[in-house]
Write a structure and sequence with these properties.
With about 325 residues, this protein is of the alpha/beta class. The chain is about 35% helix and about 20% strand. It folds into two domains: about 15-140 and about 260-290, Response regulator (Rossmann fold); about 140-260 and about 295-320, Response regulator (Rossmann fold, 3-Layer(aba) Sandwich), CATH 3.40.50.
Protein backbone atom coordinates (compact mmCIF):
# COMPACT_ATOMS: atom_id res chain seq x y z
CA UNK A 1 0.00 0.00 0.00
CA UNK A 2 1.26 3.45 -0.87
CA UNK A 3 1.88 5.71 2.08
CA UNK A 4 -0.56 8.29 0.67
CA UNK A 5 -3.45 5.88 0.23
CA UNK A 6 -6.47 6.55 2.36
CA UNK A 7 -7.15 3.74 4.75
CA UNK A 8 -5.82 4.49 8.05
CA UNK A 9 -5.91 5.23 11.60
CA UNK A 10 -4.07 8.00 13.52
CA UNK A 11 -6.55 10.15 15.23
CA UNK A 12 -5.47 13.75 15.32
CA UNK A 13 -8.08 16.42 15.51
CA UNK A 14 -7.90 20.18 15.24
CA UNK A 15 -8.71 22.40 18.18
CA UNK A 16 -11.33 20.28 19.94
CA UNK A 17 -13.72 23.00 21.15
CA UNK A 18 -14.34 23.80 17.47
CA UNK A 19 -15.02 20.24 16.33
CA UNK A 20 -18.62 19.83 15.30
CA UNK A 21 -21.03 16.95 15.75
CA UNK A 22 -20.80 14.06 13.32
CA UNK A 23 -24.41 14.82 12.47
CA UNK A 24 -23.58 18.30 11.12
CA UNK A 25 -24.72 18.32 7.46
CA UNK A 26 -21.83 18.33 5.01
CA UNK A 27 -19.11 17.88 7.65
CA UNK A 28 -16.36 15.39 6.75
CA UNK A 29 -13.86 14.33 9.41
CA UNK A 30 -10.29 13.41 8.53
CA UNK A 31 -8.58 10.96 10.87
CA UNK A 32 -4.88 10.24 10.71
CA UNK A 33 -3.65 6.82 11.77
CA UNK A 34 0.00 6.18 12.52
CA UNK A 35 0.91 2.58 13.10
CA UNK A 36 3.89 0.29 13.31
CA UNK A 37 2.83 -2.02 10.46
CA UNK A 38 1.00 -1.74 7.13
CA UNK A 39 -2.79 -1.62 6.89
CA UNK A 40 -2.78 -5.10 5.35
CA UNK A 41 -0.92 -6.60 8.29
CA UNK A 42 -3.01 -4.56 10.71
CA UNK A 43 -6.33 -5.55 9.14
CA UNK A 44 -8.09 -7.06 12.22
CA UNK A 45 -7.44 -3.99 14.36
CA UNK A 46 -8.22 -1.57 11.58
CA UNK A 47 -11.46 -3.38 10.76
CA UNK A 48 -12.53 -3.20 14.41
CA UNK A 49 -11.80 0.54 14.48
CA UNK A 50 -13.71 1.16 11.26
CA UNK A 51 -16.68 -0.86 12.50
CA UNK A 52 -16.68 1.08 15.75
CA UNK A 53 -16.70 4.37 13.84
CA UNK A 54 -19.51 3.09 11.62
CA UNK A 55 -21.58 2.31 14.71
CA UNK A 56 -21.33 6.00 15.66
CA UNK A 57 -22.35 7.19 12.20
CA UNK A 58 -18.96 7.78 10.57
CA UNK A 59 -18.80 6.25 7.09
CA UNK A 60 -15.86 6.49 4.70
CA UNK A 61 -16.83 8.27 1.53
CA UNK A 62 -19.71 10.04 3.21
CA UNK A 63 -18.47 11.93 6.26
CA UNK A 64 -15.10 10.30 7.01
CA UNK A 65 -11.62 10.14 5.48
CA UNK A 66 -8.97 7.87 6.96
CA UNK A 67 -5.28 8.60 6.34
CA UNK A 68 -3.09 5.61 7.23
CA UNK A 69 0.67 5.84 7.69
CA UNK A 70 2.92 2.93 8.65
CA UNK A 71 6.40 3.11 10.15
CA UNK A 72 7.06 -0.41 8.80
CA UNK A 73 8.79 -1.45 12.00
CA UNK A 74 11.07 1.60 12.26
CA UNK A 75 10.00 3.87 15.14
CA UNK A 76 12.39 6.58 13.93
CA UNK A 77 9.93 7.30 11.11
CA UNK A 78 7.08 8.37 13.41
CA UNK A 79 7.94 12.11 13.62
CA UNK A 80 8.03 12.50 9.83
CA UNK A 81 4.82 10.53 9.37
CA UNK A 82 3.03 12.62 11.98
CA UNK A 83 4.28 15.86 10.41
CA UNK A 84 2.85 14.61 7.12
CA UNK A 85 -0.54 14.01 8.72
CA UNK A 86 -0.53 17.39 10.40
CA UNK A 87 0.13 18.90 6.97
CA UNK A 88 -3.02 17.18 5.73
CA UNK A 89 -4.97 18.97 8.48
CA UNK A 90 -6.31 15.82 10.07
CA UNK A 91 -8.95 16.29 12.74
CA UNK A 92 -7.53 13.66 15.07
CA UNK A 93 -4.63 11.20 15.32
CA UNK A 94 -4.84 7.59 16.39
CA UNK A 95 -1.33 6.58 17.41
CA UNK A 96 -0.39 2.98 18.07
CA UNK A 97 2.27 2.39 20.68
CA UNK A 98 4.25 4.55 23.05
CA UNK A 99 6.87 5.87 20.57
CA UNK A 100 4.13 6.95 18.15
CA UNK A 101 2.09 8.63 20.88
CA UNK A 102 5.16 10.42 22.26
CA UNK A 103 6.03 11.66 18.76
CA UNK A 104 2.47 12.91 18.26
CA UNK A 105 2.44 14.71 21.61
CA UNK A 106 5.74 16.39 20.78
CA UNK A 107 4.53 17.44 17.33
CA UNK A 108 1.23 19.06 18.32
CA UNK A 109 -0.45 20.47 21.39
CA UNK A 110 -3.73 21.29 19.66
CA UNK A 111 -4.70 18.23 17.63
CA UNK A 112 -6.37 15.56 19.78
CA UNK A 113 -4.39 12.31 19.98
CA UNK A 114 -5.95 8.98 20.89
CA UNK A 115 -3.33 6.43 21.90
CA UNK A 116 -3.90 2.74 21.26
CA UNK A 117 -1.84 0.03 22.95
CA UNK A 118 0.74 2.21 24.68
CA UNK A 119 2.18 2.84 28.14
CA UNK A 120 0.15 5.89 29.20
CA UNK A 121 2.16 6.87 32.28
CA UNK A 122 5.08 7.73 30.00
CA UNK A 123 2.84 10.16 28.12
CA UNK A 124 0.00 11.60 30.24
CA UNK A 125 -0.14 13.31 33.64
CA UNK A 126 -2.44 10.71 35.18
CA UNK A 127 -4.81 7.94 34.07
CA UNK A 128 -7.85 9.71 35.53
CA UNK A 129 -7.08 13.14 34.09
CA UNK A 130 -4.55 12.84 31.26
CA UNK A 131 -4.15 16.57 30.69
CA UNK A 132 -3.11 18.29 27.44
CA UNK A 133 -4.31 16.76 24.15
CA UNK A 134 -3.63 13.03 24.61
CA UNK A 135 -5.81 10.25 25.95
CA UNK A 136 -6.48 6.67 24.94
CA UNK A 137 -5.97 3.08 25.92
CA UNK A 138 -3.20 1.15 27.62
CA UNK A 139 -2.06 -2.08 26.07
CA UNK A 140 1.31 -2.50 27.76
CA UNK A 141 1.07 -4.52 30.96
CA UNK A 142 4.39 -5.73 32.38
CA UNK A 143 2.54 -7.70 35.07
CA UNK A 144 1.48 -10.19 32.37
CA UNK A 145 5.06 -11.42 31.91
CA UNK A 146 4.94 -13.98 34.78
CA UNK A 147 1.79 -15.47 33.24
CA UNK A 148 3.53 -15.79 29.88
CA UNK A 149 6.41 -17.69 31.50
CA UNK A 150 3.88 -19.88 33.28
CA UNK A 151 2.24 -20.74 29.94
CA UNK A 152 5.61 -21.62 28.44
CA UNK A 153 6.36 -24.01 31.29
CA UNK A 154 2.91 -25.54 31.04
CA UNK A 155 3.21 -26.40 27.36
CA UNK A 156 6.96 -27.12 27.53
CA UNK A 157 7.58 -28.46 31.07
CA UNK A 158 11.22 -29.27 30.35
CA UNK A 159 12.01 -25.56 30.01
CA UNK A 160 15.00 -24.59 32.16
CA UNK A 161 16.31 -21.45 30.48
CA UNK A 162 14.43 -18.56 28.86
CA UNK A 163 15.78 -15.87 26.57
CA UNK A 164 13.94 -12.60 25.95
CA UNK A 165 14.03 -10.72 22.65
CA UNK A 166 13.35 -7.10 23.63
CA UNK A 167 14.05 -3.78 21.95
CA UNK A 168 15.55 -1.80 24.82
CA UNK A 169 15.34 1.45 22.85
CA UNK A 170 11.56 1.36 23.35
CA UNK A 171 10.70 3.15 26.62
CA UNK A 172 8.12 0.54 27.62
CA UNK A 173 10.62 -2.31 27.63
CA UNK A 174 12.40 -1.56 30.90
CA UNK A 175 9.44 -2.49 33.15
CA UNK A 176 8.80 -5.62 31.08
CA UNK A 177 12.39 -6.72 31.52
CA UNK A 178 12.21 -6.26 35.30
CA UNK A 179 9.07 -8.39 35.52
CA UNK A 180 10.61 -11.11 33.37
CA UNK A 181 13.78 -11.18 35.47
CA UNK A 182 11.75 -11.44 38.70
CA UNK A 183 9.51 -14.16 37.29
CA UNK A 184 12.43 -16.18 35.93
CA UNK A 185 14.21 -15.98 39.26
CA UNK A 186 11.08 -17.06 41.14
CA UNK A 187 10.68 -20.04 38.81
CA UNK A 188 14.42 -20.82 38.99
CA UNK A 189 14.85 -20.42 35.26
CA UNK A 190 18.07 -19.26 33.66
CA UNK A 191 17.42 -15.95 31.93
CA UNK A 192 19.18 -13.90 29.27
CA UNK A 193 18.26 -10.69 27.52
CA UNK A 194 18.88 -10.14 23.82
CA UNK A 195 18.54 -6.45 23.00
CA UNK A 196 17.21 -6.49 19.42
CA UNK A 197 17.01 -3.16 17.60
CA UNK A 198 17.44 -4.30 14.00
CA UNK A 199 16.62 -7.35 11.90
CA UNK A 200 20.31 -8.28 12.04
CA UNK A 201 20.12 -8.33 15.85
CA UNK A 202 17.23 -10.79 15.60
CA UNK A 203 19.14 -12.99 13.17
CA UNK A 204 22.21 -13.04 15.46
CA UNK A 205 20.29 -13.77 18.63
CA UNK A 206 19.09 -17.27 17.80
CA UNK A 207 22.49 -18.88 17.02
CA UNK A 208 23.83 -17.28 20.22
CA UNK A 209 21.32 -19.15 22.38
CA UNK A 210 23.30 -22.36 22.19
CA UNK A 211 21.83 -25.16 24.30
CA UNK A 212 21.55 -23.12 27.47
CA UNK A 213 18.15 -21.58 26.69
CA UNK A 214 15.27 -23.70 25.48
CA UNK A 215 12.41 -21.20 25.21
CA UNK A 216 11.95 -17.54 24.31
CA UNK A 217 9.74 -14.58 25.17
CA UNK A 218 9.33 -12.03 22.38
CA UNK A 219 8.54 -8.40 23.19
CA UNK A 220 5.71 -6.65 21.38
CA UNK A 221 6.76 -3.49 19.55
CA UNK A 222 7.39 -2.08 16.09
CA UNK A 223 10.54 -4.05 15.20
CA UNK A 224 9.36 -7.46 16.35
CA UNK A 225 5.93 -6.98 14.77
CA UNK A 226 7.48 -6.07 11.44
CA UNK A 227 9.64 -9.23 11.53
CA UNK A 228 7.23 -11.58 13.28
CA UNK A 229 7.19 -14.16 10.48
CA UNK A 230 10.98 -14.37 10.51
CA UNK A 231 11.06 -14.65 14.31
CA UNK A 232 8.53 -17.50 14.20
CA UNK A 233 10.57 -19.18 11.46
CA UNK A 234 13.81 -18.92 13.46
CA UNK A 235 12.10 -20.22 16.59
CA UNK A 236 10.97 -23.27 14.63
CA UNK A 237 14.41 -23.80 13.06
CA UNK A 238 16.01 -23.76 16.53
CA UNK A 239 13.22 -25.88 18.07
CA UNK A 240 12.30 -23.20 20.60
CA UNK A 241 8.84 -22.81 22.17
CA UNK A 242 7.99 -19.11 22.22
CA UNK A 243 5.35 -16.88 23.79
CA UNK A 244 4.30 -13.56 22.31
CA UNK A 245 2.31 -10.47 23.29
CA UNK A 246 0.35 -10.21 20.02
CA UNK A 247 -2.00 -12.61 18.25
CA UNK A 248 -0.44 -11.73 14.88
CA UNK A 249 2.74 -13.60 15.90
CA UNK A 250 0.83 -16.85 16.34
CA UNK A 251 -0.94 -16.32 13.02
CA UNK A 252 2.53 -15.93 11.46
CA UNK A 253 3.69 -19.28 12.87
CA UNK A 254 4.42 -18.57 16.54
CA UNK A 255 3.40 -20.91 19.35
CA UNK A 256 1.47 -18.97 22.03
CA UNK A 257 -0.10 -15.55 22.35
CA UNK A 258 -1.35 -14.20 25.65
CA UNK A 259 -2.33 -10.60 26.21
CA UNK A 260 -4.89 -7.85 25.65
CA UNK A 261 -7.32 -8.05 22.73
CA UNK A 262 -6.13 -5.30 20.41
CA UNK A 263 -9.26 -5.37 18.18
CA UNK A 264 -11.30 -4.67 21.31
CA UNK A 265 -9.06 -1.71 22.17
CA UNK A 266 -9.41 -0.28 18.65
CA UNK A 267 -13.18 -0.71 18.75
CA UNK A 268 -13.30 1.19 22.05
CA UNK A 269 -11.02 3.87 20.60
CA UNK A 270 -13.79 4.70 18.10
CA UNK A 271 -15.99 5.71 21.04
CA UNK A 272 -13.37 8.19 22.24
CA UNK A 273 -13.06 9.59 18.72
CA UNK A 274 -16.80 10.19 18.61
CA UNK A 275 -16.78 11.88 22.02
CA UNK A 276 -13.95 14.20 20.96
CA UNK A 277 -15.67 15.03 17.69
CA UNK A 278 -18.74 15.97 19.73
CA UNK A 279 -16.78 18.37 21.90
CA UNK A 280 -15.14 16.35 24.69
CA UNK A 281 -11.65 17.41 25.74
CA UNK A 282 -8.96 14.66 25.61
CA UNK A 283 -7.56 16.03 28.87
CA UNK A 284 -10.77 15.02 30.63
CA UNK A 285 -11.21 11.56 29.11
CA UNK A 286 -9.55 9.00 31.42
CA UNK A 287 -7.06 6.56 29.98
CA UNK A 288 -8.67 3.12 30.02
CA UNK A 289 -7.12 -0.28 30.63
CA UNK A 290 -7.66 -3.42 28.50
CA UNK A 291 -11.01 -5.09 29.16
CA UNK A 292 -10.53 -8.32 27.18
CA UNK A 293 -7.59 -10.72 27.12
CA UNK A 294 -6.86 -13.59 24.81
CA UNK A 295 -4.96 -16.88 24.79
CA UNK A 296 -4.30 -18.42 21.38
CA UNK A 297 -2.18 -21.52 20.73
CA UNK A 298 -0.91 -22.72 17.38
CA UNK A 299 -1.52 -26.46 17.49
CA UNK A 300 0.39 -27.09 14.27
CA UNK A 301 3.49 -25.46 15.73
CA UNK A 302 3.13 -27.41 18.98
CA UNK A 303 3.04 -30.70 17.09
CA UNK A 304 6.02 -29.69 14.94
CA UNK A 305 7.98 -28.99 18.14
CA UNK A 306 6.95 -32.33 19.61
CA UNK A 307 4.83 -30.70 22.32
CA UNK A 308 1.49 -31.86 23.67
CA UNK A 309 -1.00 -29.17 24.60
CA UNK A 310 -2.33 -30.06 28.08
CA UNK A 311 -6.09 -30.50 28.32
CA UNK A 312 -6.30 -27.69 30.87
CA UNK A 313 -4.58 -25.31 28.47
CA UNK A 314 -6.88 -26.31 25.62
CA UNK A 315 -9.90 -25.59 27.77
CA UNK A 316 -8.67 -22.17 28.83
CA UNK A 317 -7.56 -21.10 25.33
CA UNK A 318 -9.77 -18.82 23.27
CA UNK A 319 -8.58 -20.64 20.17
CA UNK A 320 -6.29 -23.49 19.18
CA UNK A 321 -5.18 -23.10 15.56
CA UNK A 322 -5.13 -26.52 13.90
Amino acid sequence: MKRRELFGFILIAGTWPLIASAQEPGRTFRIGIVDVVSAELNAPNLSAFQQGLHDFGYVEGRNLILEYRSADGDARRFPALIDELIGLQVDLILARGTPAALAAKKATSTIPVVMAVGEPLLIVESLARPGANVTGFSGVQPDLEPKRLELLQEIAPATSGVAALLNMSNPVTGPQLKELERAAQAKRLRFRLFDVRTRDDIERAFPALGGEFDAIVVGLEALTQAHRARIAELAMEHRLPAVYGGREFVEAGGLIFYGPSFPDIYRRAARYVDRIFRGARPAELPVEQPAKFGLVINGRVARALGLTIPASLRLSADEVIE
